[in-house]
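Shift notes (night). Ran Methyltransferase while the centrifuge was going.
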Amino acid sequence: MAQRTVAQKMGVKEGSRAHLVNAPASALDALQLPELELPGMLSGKFDYLHLFVTTQQQLRSGFGELRDHLNPGGMLWVSWPRFVRGLIASSVPVPRPWCPWSGQERALA
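Came back to this:
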């Protein structure tokens, strides 16, 4: 059985309309993304949006703008490095999304 790529595990589908912000080359290599429709500008609606951040400010400024361009049923991923030298550990918090189907918060692994 062939091993699934990170992009497949994330649910990224070939041909999806996508926009990636501040994506480091190493992350793109690790994701092994399928062929995507990648317009040069953030305009219209998207199936897959991915924001790469190293500070809370980047998260605050980028998340809302991307969210407004998300298709119903689309996905918005936020990624940050596990460790950045000189970055205060609490500057990029681990999100705790509310799960309406369970009424509980869950930490992302």
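Residues 51 and 78 are 5 Å apart (CA to CA). The first helix runs from residue 6 to 10.
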